[in-house]
Design a protein that fits this description.
With 108 residues, the protein is an alpha+beta fold. The protein contains four helices and four strands; from the N terminus they run H-E-E-E-H-E-H-H. Strands 1-2-3-4 form a four-stranded mixed sheet, sandwiched between helices. The longest helix has 16 residues.
């Protein structure tokens, strides 16, 4: 786990948001998300959130290469088809608190 992922896990625990790490959301492709959060809503319905922390955006990392970007598109499109809502953050967004604030807004 990366340092930003560990920091986000700490932040989520600190505010009482339950989550699953390295959550498999597609059995067929064995895709995983950095975090999964299930949000209970009125009645028996719920929203399933996936949270990704994408590093390397300023150093031509995996998420910004052509191949990596295409793979991310495929993965996140499948998540949407399966009914997930996806939030994506950079390590800087985690460190500044923007990621946590956004997650809290999404769950409100």
């Amino acid at each position: 786990m990366s340092a930003p992922e560990e920091l986000l896990a700490f932040q989520l625990r600190a505010v009482g948001i339950a989550f699953e790490r390295e959550a498999r959301f597609s059995v067929a492709r064995k895709w995983r998300a950095d975090f999964a959060i299930a949000q209970t809503e009125r009645g028996a319905t719920f929203t399933r959130w996936l949270v990704e922390v994408d590093g390397g955006s300023w150093i031509a990392g995996r998420h910004t290469s052509g191949t990596g970007f295409a793979a991310d598109c495929e993965k996140l499109n499948e998540a949407a088809i399966l009914g997930y809502r996806v939030l994506r953050f950079t390590p800087e967004m985690v460190e500044s608190g923007v990621a946590l604030a956004t997650i809290e807004r999404a769950l409100a």
